[in-house]
Amino acid sequence: MILRSRTESEELLKLRSLNTLMGLTQEERFHYFNLEKGYEGEVKFDRMAEKLQEERYTINDLLLKVNNSYFQIDTTLVSQEVIRLLDVKNFEGDFCLEKDRFFLVKTGREYKNPIGQLNKCASQFRQLLQDLKLNYLVEATIIFINPEFTLYNAQVDHPIILPNQVSRFLKSINDTSSKLNDGHKKLAQQLISLHQTKNPFTQVPTYQYEQIKKDIYCKFCSSFLVSLQNHLFVCGKCGGHETVEDAILRKVKEFQLLFPERKITTTTIYEWCNVDLTKRTFCRVLKKNFTSFGKTSDSYYI
Ligand SMILES: [Zn+2]
User: Fold this and answer.
1) 22 C-alpha to center of ligand 1: Å?
2) Distance from the CA of 149 to the center of ligand 1, in angstroms?
3) Distances (CA, A) of 25 to 9, 11, 33, 127, 204
4) What is the pLDDT of residues 72-125, one digit of tens each?
5) How far is the CA of 238 from the centre of ligand 1 (A)?
6) CA 220 / ligand 1 centre spacing (Å)
7) What spatial distance separates the first Cα and last Cα of the chain, rounded to whole Å?
8) How crowded is the C-beta side of 183, counted as CA atoms within 13 Å?
9) What is the CA radius of gyration of the chain?
10) What are the angstrom distances between the C-alpha of 108 and each of 145, 158, 192, 213?
């Protein structure tokens, strides 16, 4: 049973919009692509884990805090006998583990050693359980999900699951019976209530309203080559379609995400989209989907 589902983080959504509307530096883009890739891997794993049967709780994307330091868990799987902390990695290519170094063989580019990160996370989690006066067995594992990933020097006692082992790993969990009681339920509720909403790890560049391109772009491929055809935006690059209303609502969401302090009015959204539609169209869509406040001339929507 999924108790907390996975959604794209605010950081990822912001970077995705900024990449399209402002452009990112090489380093920022590297970070952004890593987030996209990471999320893609997590979703892929979620789809595989959906098949898990018996009584288990799945809690996705927990950000917890112990002794003033934060730690993240991609998937927390509560079963009768054990709590599994799963860290899903979507790395691609030939990697090597050498002592504490974890690097891509081809370029030598070094990444944070995921085993070190995992061990730290597991010990913080155990500490948290102790603070809550709870006693459960905890097992932490890294799931390398990308079929194009290989790891040289992987040892049999490393807490890792390689791409061609993921199905068997899930099957072995599935083959273990699990019945949950009120204690497990309380534990899951506590973990969810301890989730931190302010993520201190986020890296979003600073941006000003003036720097951002005001335009409509394709929902599917982010191309600006969209044209209006019979109440639809049609992409000249990928051929994707989106209704005018959906596109405006998507842009409103984006505006709220990037500029939460600004009010939504017909004029702000009209300027934000900067597209060949009348203000009346924007007014109609906003009225239909939001509640308006204030007098007609300067009403805003929430
Ligand atoms: Zn497109």
Assistant:
1) 18
2) 29
3) 20, 16, 12, 39, 11
4) 999 999 999 999 999 999 999 999 999 889 999 999 999 999 999 999 999 999
5) 4
6) 5
7) 33
8) 12
9) 23
10) 21, 22, 39, 37
